[in-house]
Amino acid sequence: MVIITGASGLVGGVLVRALLANRHPIRALVHHDRRALDGLDVETVSADLTDPTSLQKAFAGAKTVYHLASSISIRMDNWDELQGVNVEGTRNVVDACLQHGVEKLVYFSSIHAYQQEPFDQPLDEDGLLLTDKSAPPYERSKAAAELIARQAPERGLATVIIIPTAILGPYDFRPSYLGQALKLLASGRIPALVRGGYDWVDVRDVVNGAMQAERLGRSGARYILSGQWRSLRDVAQVTAQVSSRSAPKFSVPIWLAEAFQPVMAKLAQINGAQPIYTKAMLNAMRSNRIISHTRASKDLGYAPRPFEETVRDTLDWFAKQGGNFT
User: Fold this and answer.
1) Superfamily (CATH H level) for 2-176+199-230+289-306
2) Residue 21 contacts by C-beta under 8 Å, 6 or more apart in sequence?
3) pLDDT-above-90 percentage for the chain
4) Whole-model pTM above 0.90?
C-alpha cells in the first residue's frame, strides 16, 4: 500500500496516475477538493495533517508514504497557520509512519527552503536551509519541515527528500498559483511583466524523479529536481506562440513592482481575484538562477524535458478543460 498525502494537488494527481500505471495500490489522503482523483481506482481517505488521530488511522497497512501535502501560501502574515500545517503536520506524518512501521518516506520540500546566496555559485543539496525570520512564512515553514524530515532516519524511518523548483504542468485541476498565472498570460489578462523569473520544472519530471528516489535513493539522501531558469518574458513569449495572443509589451523592475504591490493587492481584492505579484512571489523571483540537479541525474537518471514542451502541454490541457486562449 502506497500512501499519498496531498493527493489532490498538482503533483499528487500526477503521482497517483503514474503509480496506478505501475499497478500500485494507493490510498489517497485528501482534505476537501478531490477533482484530481475523479474516476481513478484509488482508495480516498479524509485526513488532516494537524490531527494526529486521523493520520494514525489513515496510515494503517502502509509500506511507502509520499508526503506532499502542505499549505502553499504567497502571503506574509500567516506564519501560525503554516507552522501548524507544514511543520507540525510533517512531524505528525513522521510519527504516524513510525507507529505503523512504514518502510520508506518520500518527503517533498522546496527549493525556497534553502538560502539562495551566493548567486554566482550553483545551489545544490549541500546548501544551507533558510534561517532568515524576515523571509516569507511559506519558505520558513518548508525549511523547518525539511529539518524534521532530515531527522527522521535517526528515529528509524528511512527517508528521502525531494526538492523541486517552480512546478508547472498538466492535470492542474485547482489550478495552482503558477497554473493560474499561465492561464492569465494565455488569456491576455496580465498587462505587464516583472523583470524576474524562476527555475521551472515539469510536474511529470518531478513525479518520475520522486518515484526513482523512492526506489533507488538511500535513506537520508536529498535530491534537487530542477529544470531550466526562464524569465517571465521568456514564459510570455512561449505562451504567446501557443495561445496566438501577443505577449505583454511592458516589463518593470522588481523594486518597482514591490512599490506598487499594496495597490495591486487592493485592486485584486476589489475584483475578487488572486493577486499575481505578491511580496512573497516577488521575493522568490530573486532566487538563485543556477540550481544543480547533478546528483539526481547521476543517482536517479533524472533528465528534465524542455521548458517549451511543458508550457505547450500545460496550455493544451487547460484548453481541453474548457479554457479558451485564442
Assistant:
1) NAD(P)-binding Rossmann-like Domain (3.40.50.720)
2) none
3) 80
4) yes
